[in-house]
């Protein structure tokens, strides 16, 4: 219509575009960024990527997000029925079950390795249903993300008392530790955390009451060995 002003999204200033992008999910941010150079530049702004939430391992491979020093909070929570299959010990899996797990066997661990390299300012980490994440993965996180304040694990069957053994030695800022439904955590490991970090908020719903898959190791002797690796 004559006399009616029209406006394109790219006519907005950067502050407005950043505010707009903050309301859009990762997929749509990526799609929008591919329409022009200006929106791509906004997509790459670190201020948009202080928090990342993923609902399955395949989401980690989409490349619809930016991973960098701005990241403060990371959550990977997988509640698929395949989580039950992944939580079966490898020696007990059938060939079919192994084939179902193989596509994402290292997806989360590889991603966490990138986090160690790129995200030194991470404050909170939440992992649920990540059956293939073990002690070595968490040890790397504790070493390379010294500002961690909260770690919440749920249904991560590969995590054992080895992780708890190093928490008092590497986690100066950690004030919250959840290891819920992690069946290879024992009372011995929990006691070690309570003794080494008396002020920590420790939660272990069902973990120490579940049947462990592995024979517990000598936790105290493992502390120095894990730190020196």
From TrEMBL:
One matching Pfam family: F-box-like
Protein name, as recorded: F-box domain-containing protein
UniProt KW ATP-binding keyword: no
Keywords tagged on the record: Leucine-rich repeat
Ranges for domain F-box: 15-53
Species of provenance: Engystomops pustulosus (Tungara frog)
InterPro entries: F-box_dom, Leu-rich_rpt_Cys-con_subtyp, LRR_dom_sf
Gene3D superfamilies: Ribonuclease Inhibitor
Top-level taxon: Eukaryota
